[in-house]
């Protein structure tokens, strides 16, 4: 969704190929050949294959520096742009996945609720951090400038 939204924002042409998770298409041999993790999304650009949504966003925006969707390379905002993308990917999105799919983290049913509760505590913490950042330093994640990181936040939210 974040990659899709970025393409719309940039106004570039792209082909969107649906991988139907309900049909487990992400685990098909054809898909695993391009993304061995069996997860969406995957970008194919000029024969180059890139996976991980945050990495895809960084890569795409690097192709369009004139878009203004990445902060100046010598600014603090550039550091914050990386910081929030990596943190959302590793911490917020991971907790959201644990909350939505506790069965991926434990065997059997007995501890599912505990995994969900722990994930919920982490989500509450993360949304609290984001609430503070956006309230005190917004309107966007890095401050005054809309960046690709906001598209990632929107997707997870
Ligand atoms: N860190 C990865 C997470 C990707 C991910 O978890 N994708 C989910 C959908 S949101 C997926 O493909 N789930 C299917 C599965 O796990 O089989 C990213 O940001 O690209």
Describe this structure in words.
With 157 residues, this protein is mainly alpha-helical. It has two domains: 2-67, Glutaredoxin; 76-156, Glutathione S-transferase Yfyf (Class Pi), Chain A, domain 2. The protein is built from six helices and two strands, in the order H-H-E-E-H-H-H-H. It has a two-stranded antiparallel ribbon. Helix 1 runs antiparallel to helix 6 (148-156), helix 4 packs antiparallel against helix 5 (112-137) and helix 4 (76-100) packs parallel to helix 6. 19% of the residues are buried. The model has no long low-confidence stretch (mean pLDDT 97). The structure holds glutathione (GSH). Glutathione is lined by residues 21, 26, 38-41, 52-53, 89, 93, 97. Residues 74-157 form the GST C-terminal domain.
